[in-house]
Amino acid sequence: MAANLPWDITIEILSRLPVKSLLRFNCVSKSFYSLISQDSHFKRKHLDHQSANHNLILNLEHAPECLFSCSLSSLSSDDQEDVVVLDNPIKVESWDCLRIARSCNGLLCIQDIAGIVCIWNPSTRELKRLPDCPRANDRIACSLGYDSSSDDYKVLSIHESLIGDRVARTELQLCSLKRDSSWRKIQDLPGMKFSWYDSYDFLNGAFYWIENVGSYSDLNGPLVIASFDIKKEIFKEFELFPPTRYSYQYTVFDVSVLGGKLCLYSLGSDVSFDLWEIEEYGVLKKMLSIRINKIPACSVSIFKPLYLFEDGKIMIFTRINYQQEVNIYKDGDSAPKTTAANCKIRKAYICNETLISPHIND
């Protein structure tokens, strides 16, 4: 059929197909192989078409060495979808030995307990190990972002130097996949408190996080949001003032990129979850609220949003009474829809399909 179609129409059709099908089509002809495996413009076009098609990737207790992937569309509806098994690309016995940052254009940034960082495409199974980082032992986070100005993927690594319990110095390092894949020291910051989270969220060329996230705050003052622009290589801060009713003593705040928007969310001592969009000049626009009835606050240790659906529902990774689940809530909900109800979940990630290779210049 392709021989009877204009090449531009063939490209348009192929750019809308899933990665699994395209990898099979590599063997059809030399022109197909060149387009699918080597044409960066086609890969970008395919990624644009796949931007709304995401997969939920789970690590389960009964198979700690593997990941399981299924489409979000099957979870949001009642449709059934085949589950794909993803073998561990780094040879460790369990994914508990690895930290995985949020997906960037379908690529995952993985760090093992020895500080080794790899970039992995779970759709094509391609893996690239980055050079060893001189200060890997004091790294607290590592995340992947995309610089559209240079069509390059860059890994931000954050390191802390401690004197006793005090943070004496924070160092930012950057590694470019396109240039030479070597680590460069970007900036030294004074003793600032960063989160000990696996990663920071990325949106429109910048990483975002809340300083000292996860600690209990009295919230007499503002929340401090930090950002790092990977094109200009500039670190900035700005302040947010949550609504006054959130000034009770025990409220945990964090930021997340959901639906292409930078969002602030809170988990309160009354086991309430609230989500706002952070608009220009730090204005907060309320998006949804969830009240979890009949659950003691002390039993909730994780309540992290994963994905915001177009219909306003939200997927949240939770740990309640040591039981980890992925639930789908709607605004005002107290009784969620539970996904993978019969599975014991260890970790959960969101990732869209992509042909983008971590071996940009190889």
Descriptive report:
With 362 residues, the chain is mainly beta. The protein has two domains: 1-50, no CATH class; 51-352, Neuraminidase (6 Propeller), CATH 2.120.10. It has five helices and 24 strands. The strands form six sheets. It has a four-stranded antiparallel sheet. A hairpin with a 2-residue loop joins strand 9 and strand 10. It is globular, with a radius of gyration of 21 Å. The two termini are 34 Å apart. Residues 1-45 form the F-box domain. InterPro entries: F-box-assoc_dom_typ3, F-box-assoc_interact_dom, F-box-like_dom_sf, F-box_dom, Gal_Oxase/kelch_b-propeller, SCF_F-box_component. Pfam families: F-box (PF00646), FBA_3 (PF08268). It comes from Olea europaea subsp. europaea. This is F-box CPR30-like.
Describe how the helices and strands are arranged:
Layout: H1 7-14, H2 19-25, H3 30-38, H4 40-50, E1 54-60, E2 66-71, H5 72-76, E3 84-87, E4 98-100, E5 108-112, E6 117-121, E7 126-129, E8 139-147, E9 152-163, E10 166-176, E11 183-189, E12 201-203, E13 206-210, E14 223-229, E15 234-240, E16 251-258, E17 261-268, E18 272-278, E19 284-291, E20 300-308, E21 314-320, E22 323-329, E23 337-339, E24 345-352
Antiparallel strand pairs: 1-2, 1-24, 2-3, 4-5, 5-6, 6-7, 8-9, 9-10, 10-11, 12-13, 13-14, 14-15, 16-17, 17-18, 18-19, 20-21, 21-22, 22-23
Domain F-box: 1-45
Protein name: F-box CPR30-like
Pfam families: F-box, FBA_3
